[in-house]
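Deliverable D2.4 — example input (structure tokens):
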């Protein structure tokens, strides 16, 4: 699933505060003179933080605008202007940061900021942002508004500071004060429009006007929603806050009155109240007063009812919203936790309007709903955090507080249907800084350990639920068939039998197959994705941007579809998985006459196979804007996807349009009421199973275990068991603690690189992005004599052995496709490090990557080679096998190719001559059986007995012994194919046939 664009997208800009731009107004007589900020005459350099100056930024290398100080005869101020060109696909803009080494600027005496802008009349919104408070320009609070470029030529834009709102979709830091103080201003930023090629020019940025108290003081309420039981008393706390936290110098009055515009009846449902609160001059910032609103019992079963508390403020800025008292729904059958879920669903569904049902079928990105008023306005059923969409600060407490705030908004709806909040926790709670980050799925595939996979799922679920999130968009059940795919590491492997065996992770996430554990505070709803065939897309078939394979076309026979791609979903349904997510990709089943059809539109697969033949009783959630890829207009996309069986539609920024369109399609009869009721019933069923109606708010009792030693121990074991020893000449590994070790390579000391994509942000990032132990740090714990030189520039003499840790930098999805700025080769720096170290001493090379890397040309110089995959935050697990605390036991979950020309290459292929076959993995600390062919013959007999007896543990042990015997010989083209097929047979319980294939492989090496 795609992440949200965290800084500014076209959709986001349309949600920012509107501002009416106008020609500059005449200066009032008592206004102070304007104060220049930027004249763009050369006084402000182009520079990067911490130096003061102007710099550009963007979502990728093409998105930052090109800037220049241009001489213009028509410059409004002086001779030069700031001009630029842009063509932005994600987000991009520029910033003027004031120098970190100097004090921040005090803008609190002024009314606002203004500047000259050369309009292009393109109708696009331009976001303007202030950096307020905090330590410096990159660690401040962001306050934003926007103006519309709907004019031509120069125009002076005036923005009063009262128009700026605190950014809710992204903050670089958090917990400062959420008040636009202006006493410590660090600069400003401009976010340019997306989706057009454009130019702009700007001049004469300055502060104007005189601030009065109404600009410096604000009246706030403790919440926008105040639920109470029928007959209870709601308490609303009203406070005054000022910029710089200075006491108010004039009185502030707040007149309050319960308004009859809500759904509750005055005198029947509540006792009306009114009055005035006065904050006298000299009142300190943060002072609070309380208003109480009594509600009345009328002994009727009824939905929730609202009572607005109207506030009239004098002397300060009023609250952004009118607070609402909510008399909770009561006495209705769906609220009775003792009733069967099916009956509760039927009762609630019977009471809902079409608008409420359509809202339940919409899922929005948290960054698109601001403080959450839209949750109630549009009856939203779900919110999500895309990759990197996090609260500020990014802590467990902030996550719980954020989600509780959104859940509180849902309490203002008629039936108080709780939200179900979702995240992509694909290898631990990877959006959260400090969470336990597991190896990616490809590493778990290498472990061949279903019990361990279940434990990793359980740790993930516990950490996710402890932050208030009850839904995880995992696991990915893709069967990866081409290493050029940028999502390869999200797969357990290339063999459907391997994927099937590790679906124990579903029980780790959800608990019991019947869903009875979902209400527990350490379990989450799981998602099987991406249905179906996302791992089989053909190279070059993608039409998404510059992607080459992701979101492309999977072209298969019906038999291939069933055997390879559908099989894991049958297992997932049997395991009780709660939700399924369709793939972005298209499916082309040979002979069915349909050609390639986007999965979000394939009713035959979703309604027919998944819900029909497999009897899936959960709900189907679309991928991020996935329905937009269906050919046609919005109405067509909505009706096609919903009629195909999609129950909830992830429309991160277009949820309003989706809801309206779905209602129009339903009223027109193009989407039936029965289909909508089916979808909403499925969604409500899972919400009841999760216990959200009884406990909508976060249970943080397990938060202390997030990132705990207990949880990290599971990740450490998973990292150790995921390591695959591909070569080990002369027993170089394990290392001895007494050896003097030379460590080099780009991935030796980088927690971001070893964690990969989907870590803290969507694409992941290199560097110290989250707490953990790098491979180098772990090795230092085991060796008293260790030299580290990232680029191998330090002298190599005097060392016993070198360890070079190389591989990939993070990426996610199609961004990481080979041919989209990526390949399967080591970087020049990594190749140089391998060459230098391995030429100077015995060496072990660890490849930290999400897929195989082509290293055949250097294999002869390398003594030991390890596929480390992406081990996550626990580098100690890697050191455990390197230093012999644990044995190497991992096996290749995918075939390791000799060259890119061989791709795609998979177990079962007719032509199969890889560098290392599927299932390959040497071991240490284990004695290899002797006797060669004679022993293999005996093992074959024993395997047949174990298979007949149904003894899985014995059968696996027998096949493992046979595999170790074969691995003592050199791989040949003739031996690779039966060797790989033996591992597939083992996973399907055919132990005798597996030993027979290994015996054939042994003979082929003789």
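Example output (designed residues):
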């Amino acid at each position: 699933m795609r992440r949200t664009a965290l800084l500014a997208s076209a959709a986001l800009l349309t949600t920012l505060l509107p501002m009416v731009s106008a020609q500059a107004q005449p200066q009032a007589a008592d206004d102070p003179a304007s104060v220049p900020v930027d004249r763009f005459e050369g006084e402000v350099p182009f520079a990067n933080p911490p130096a003061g100056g102007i710099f550009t930024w963007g979502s990728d290398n093409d998105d930052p605008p090109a800037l220049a100080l241009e001489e213009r005869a028509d410059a409004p101020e002086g001779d030069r202007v700031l001009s630029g060109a842009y063509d932005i696909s994600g987000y991009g803009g520029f910033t003027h940061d004031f120098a970190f080494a100097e004090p921040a600027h005090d803008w609190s005496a002024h009314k606002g900021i203004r500047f000259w802008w050369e309009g292009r009349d393109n109708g696009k919104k331009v976001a303007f942002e202030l950096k307020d408070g905090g330590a410096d320009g990159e660690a401040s609070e962001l306050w934003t508004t926007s103006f519309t470029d709907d004019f031509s030529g120069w125009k002076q834009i005036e923005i009063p500071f009262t128009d700026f709102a605190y950014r809710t979709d992204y903050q670089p830091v958090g917990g400062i004060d959420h008040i636009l103080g202006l006493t410590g201003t660090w600069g400003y930023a401009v976010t340019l429009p997306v989706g057009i090629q454009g130019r702009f020019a700007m001049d004469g940025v300055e502060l104007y006007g005189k601030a009065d108290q109404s600009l410096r003081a604000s009246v706030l309420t403790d919440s926008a929603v105040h639920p109470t039981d029928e007959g209870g008393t709601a308490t609303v706390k009203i406070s005054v806050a000022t910029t710089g936290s200075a006491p108010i110098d004039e009185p502030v009055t707040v007149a309050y009155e319960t308004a009859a515009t809500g759904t509750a009846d005055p005198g029947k449902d509540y006792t009306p109240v009114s009055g005035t609160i006065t904050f006298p001059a000299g009142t300190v910032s943060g002072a609070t007063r309380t208003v109480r609103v009594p509600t009345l019992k009328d002994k009727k079963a009824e939905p929730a009812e609202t009572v607005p508390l109207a506030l009239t403020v004098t002397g300060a800025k009023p609250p952004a919203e009118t607070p609402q008292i909510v008399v909770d729904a009561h006495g209705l059958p769906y609220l009775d936790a003792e009733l069967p879920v099916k009956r509760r669903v039927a009762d609630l569904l019977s009471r809902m309007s079409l608008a409420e049902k359509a809202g339940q079928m919409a899922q929005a990105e948290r960054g698109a709903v601001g403080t959450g008023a839209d949750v109630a306005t549009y009856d939203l059923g779900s919110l999500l955090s895309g990759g990197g969409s996090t609260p500020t600060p990014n802590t467990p407490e902030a996550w719980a507080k954020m989600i509780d705030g959104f859940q509180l908004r849902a309490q203002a709806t008629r039936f108080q249907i709780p939200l179900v909040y979702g995240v992509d926790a694909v290898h631990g709670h990877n959006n959260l800084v400090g969470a336990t980050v597991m190896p990616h799925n490809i590493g778990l595939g290498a472990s061949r350990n279903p019990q361990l996979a279940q434990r990793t799922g359980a740790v993930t679920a516990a950490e996710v639920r402890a932050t208030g999130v009850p839904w995880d968009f995992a696991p990915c059940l893709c069967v990866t068939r081409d290493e050029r795919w940028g999502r390869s590491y999200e797969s357990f492997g290339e063999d459907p039998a391997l994927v099937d065996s590790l679906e124990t992770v579903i029980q780790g996430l959800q608990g019991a197959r019947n869903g009875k554990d979902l209400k527990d505070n350490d379990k989450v709803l799981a998602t099987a994705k991406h249905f179906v065939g996302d791992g089989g897309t053909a190279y070059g078939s993608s039409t998404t941007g510059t992607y080459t394979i992701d979101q492309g076309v999977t072209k298969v026979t019906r038999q291939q579809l069933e055997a390879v791609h559908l099989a894991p979903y049958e297992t997932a349904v049997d395991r009780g998985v709660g939700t399924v997510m369709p793939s972005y990709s298209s499916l082309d089943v040979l002979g069915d006459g349909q050609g390639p059809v986007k999965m979000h539109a394939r009713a035959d697969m979703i309604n027919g196979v998944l819900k029909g033949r497999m009897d899936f009783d959960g709900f189907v959630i679309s991928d991020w804007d996935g329905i937009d890829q269906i050919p046609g207009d919005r109405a067509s996309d909505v009706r096609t996807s919903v009629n195909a069986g999609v129950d909830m539609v992830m429309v991160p920024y277009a949820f309003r349009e989706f809801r309206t369109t779905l209602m129009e399609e339903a009223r027109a009869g193009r989407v039936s009421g029965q289909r909508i009721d089916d979808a909403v019933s499925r969604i409500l069923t899972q919400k009841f199973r999760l216990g959200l109606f009884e406990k909508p708010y976060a249970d943080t009792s397990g938060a202390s275990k997030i990132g705990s030693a207990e949880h990290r121990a599971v990740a450490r074991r998973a990292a150790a068991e995921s390591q695959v020893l591909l070569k080990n000449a002369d027993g170089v590994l394990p290392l001895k603690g007494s050896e003097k070790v030379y460590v080099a390579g780009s991935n030796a000391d980088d927690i971001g690189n070893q964690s990969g994509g989907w870590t803290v942000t969507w694409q992941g990032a290199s560097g110290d992005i989250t707490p953990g132990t790098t491979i180098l740090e772990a090795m230092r714990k085991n060796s008293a004599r260790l030299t580290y030189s990232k680029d191998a520039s330090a002298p190599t003499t005097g060392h016993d052995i070198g360890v070079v840790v190389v591989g990939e930098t993070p990426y996610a999805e199609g961004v990481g496709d080979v041919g989209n700025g990526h390949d399967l080769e080591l970087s020049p720096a990594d190749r140089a490090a391998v060459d230098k170290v391995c030429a100077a001493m015995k060496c072990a090379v660890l490849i930290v990557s999400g897929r195989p890397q082509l290293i055949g040309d250097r294999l002869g110089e390398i003594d030991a080679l390890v596929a480390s995959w992406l081990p996550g935050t626990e580098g100690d697990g890697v050191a455990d096998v390197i230093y012999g605390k644990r044995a190497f036991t991992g096996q290749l979950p995918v075939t390791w190719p000799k060259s890119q020309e061989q791709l795609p290459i998979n177990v079962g292929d007719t032509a199969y001559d890889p560098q290392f076959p599927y299932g390959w993995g040497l071991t240490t600390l284990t004695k290899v059986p002797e006797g060669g062919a004679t022993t293999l013959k005996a093992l074959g007999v024993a395997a047949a007995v174990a298979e007949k007896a149904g003894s899985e543990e014995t059968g696996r042990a027998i096949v493992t012994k046979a595999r170790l015997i074969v691995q003592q010989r050199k791989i040949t083209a003739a031996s690779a194919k039966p060797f790989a097929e033996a591992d597939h047979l083992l996973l399907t319980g055919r132990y005798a046939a597996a030993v027979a294939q290994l015996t054939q492989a042994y003979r082929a090496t003789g």
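Residues 619 and 682 are 5 Å apart (CA to CA).
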